[in-house]
Amino acid sequence: MPDRKPEGFISTGKENRDVDTMLQAFCATDQQLDLYIAPTNGSVNYQQIIESFCLPDSVRVHYTDGVIPYLLAQKVARKSCVVICCMDFPYTVGLTTLVEAFALGIPVICSRNPNFEMDIDKEEIGITVAYDDVEGWINAIHRIADHPEEAQKMGANARKLAEKRFNLEIFSREIAESLLEISKMSPKKRTFA
């Protein structure tokens, strides 16, 4: 997306987001953050957590009502970096947001989730930060903001990764292989109909 003029950071997503750590980090910087999140999800009351902060003007919260992927993708496409600050859960929290950033060629700052099948740091597509590490988040935010050429390179690497490893052809082949494997399984061993 060569003609876009990126501006600031964005966080989207609806479940198991660590808004406390993220907001502590952004409040300690002067960087612009747009946070799109539902007021609540499951047992987590994001609005209550957010309202406990005295947010600077550089941090803007937009409460979403339901899933609005196309509208959010348009907003994400105008940003310099996608931030995915997640709680420590044993699954791929944030994966949808991560793959969207890849497709748009935007670097990420992401909680270091061991359940992702790619290594964000090794692939040079963004920066990972340990769970609950406010100082690590502050450092990552400054690194992206202070080194736009490096961030742009990370975004280009992310787009290449999306085209090479996370595309429809590979996805379709993996589904076909899984279905073939299931079809060969004895009906007695299946845990589904």
From TrEMBL:
Any one GO molecular function term: glycosyltransferase activity
Gene3D superfamilies (alphabetical): Glycogen Phosphorylase B
Sequence ranges assigned to domain Glycosyl transferase family in this UniProt record: 16-160
Name of the molecule in the record: Glycosyltransferase
Organism in which the protein naturally occurs: Phocaeicola vulgatus
